[in-house]
Amino acid sequence: MTIPFLKMHGLGNDFVVIDARKTPVPLTATQVVAIGDRRRGVGFDQLILIEPPQDKAADIFMRILNPDGSEAGACGNATRCVASLVGKGLGGDALVIQTISGLLDCRLHEDGTVTVDMGPARLDWQQIPVAEACDTLHLPPIAGPLGDGVGVNMGNPHAVHFVPDAEAVDLETWGPQLERHAFFPDRANIEVASVTGPSSVRMRVWERGAGITQACGSGACAVGVAAIRRGLVEGRRVAVTLDGGVLTIEWRKDGHVLMTGPVATSFAGHLGPDLLGGEAL
What we know:
Number of strands: 17
Distance between the termini: 7 Å
Helix content: 10-25%
Largest sheet: 17 strands, mixed
Number of helices: 4
Mean pLDDT: 94
Low-confidence stretches: none
Radius of gyration: 18 Å
Shape: globular
């Protein structure tokens, strides 16, 4: 027995996507780690399982697994990829994807891009969450050179730090330390961002459970919301440039955050026992 999969990406943020709607695929954490090994496995930033919906309002359920085997609450780039894949199969241009963080409305466009309503930005300190009551627009200093962060929850926790030059930050050193700091009881995604124009921002990201990635959709949403909250950009639409490309983020007045960007399929394959850490399927 082998497991068919697609390798997809959104701006270089790459995924192994497995359709488990007809046949459950109960992967262990060890197997997930083995598949994610970029030398001995397939490699991915997240592994995505497409499952039957648990909510009647949804078309599918999307389960998001990190390379360390942990489960993530949100992944905007993966949502676009899955929406494109499933939407084409359903024969329409709109669908609803369920995640452990809620329902996401998705719309496919003729140019191949996908817009995802990532839901409302959650901004209270208990919603991020952080360990103590504070103003999430100006998080207290935690550790290292990054301070005065902005807390945003986009289905998972984010700490956005505005700096003069995002390229100059040693994110590989400070990302993991901040991700696992006691101030973030559920750990956190760590973003550094620089304003580059009236409605544009450059960002880099250390993803919780994944490390530095080419792009992070929920992170781009968090950065867009943080920039608007701080009054660093004009209007409520922001072009966010990540290592892998540009996402358009709109923070509507009703609190919902819309993310628009491209998707791509790299290749298809099958997972066998040699890619599953020696464990039986």
